[in-house]
Amino acid sequence: MSDCVNQVSVFPFEVLSYGSHFTHRISKVECNFMSFSYAFTQISSGLIIAVITTDQHISQIMGRQLDTMDGNRRIYVFALFALFVVAAFVSSIHLIFGDSEIFYPRSWCFIEVSGRDFGSSATALVYSLTGILTLNYTAFLHIYIMCKSNRDPELRGHLVDTDRITGYYDIHVNIFLMTSLTFYVLCWGPFLVDILLRSVNVVTSCTGRLELWLVRLVDFKSNLNPWLYVILRKENLRRIVRKFRSCRAGNIQDGEGDGENDRLVSDTHM
For a disulfide at 109, which of 29, 35, 170, 202, Cβ 3.0-4.6 Å? Predict the structure, then answer.
């Protein structure tokens, strides 16, 4: 949901910049809005994945007792509300103590990382550390869940829905967790590291094409997430494998039929 909000809110400004061949001057209000939107959706998306991972870990420990707890729905709603409050706070600090910066090719804005004042450096540092800590927490907890469920396959049954689409001893759960974790780290991690290095003045060069490619990588993660959850569902994987096997079996049968026909023709000539 947060990724969709970011795409809808920021995309029109980028289209306007590219459509005008970058002659459109982004106003201060537009720049602040874009920087907040980018930071908020990235942080909130990362926190949501961290909360989902934490819920998976708790489900491993408590099992189906978690679904029958009183006030369980209220707990999830409160956690989601608290998550968005934290994300909004981290994403709006630069609007008070720092500033927003227009990045190459003057089509998008983010937290200022080129400024040398304390406010800009501190706000960029808060954002990057929040993202990196969230990323590390989620990654380590993901790995712990996979290792624990691999040692005790019965625990995988607590990671599926009530329809039991995935079986207790099915390795599909770990494959899904590992795939989502890999894309999560590879797509968001480099951007966070770049912001961190610039906030502590380890990298002092001007922002340019690198930041554009890194933020496009983050956007790619946003567009890829829904497809991962659709394609890697067990029933969809089964359909794909079944279709592949049926096509392969059809080709084999066609080949066998051609061989039989050739043999009949050769026997006739003889």
Answer: 35
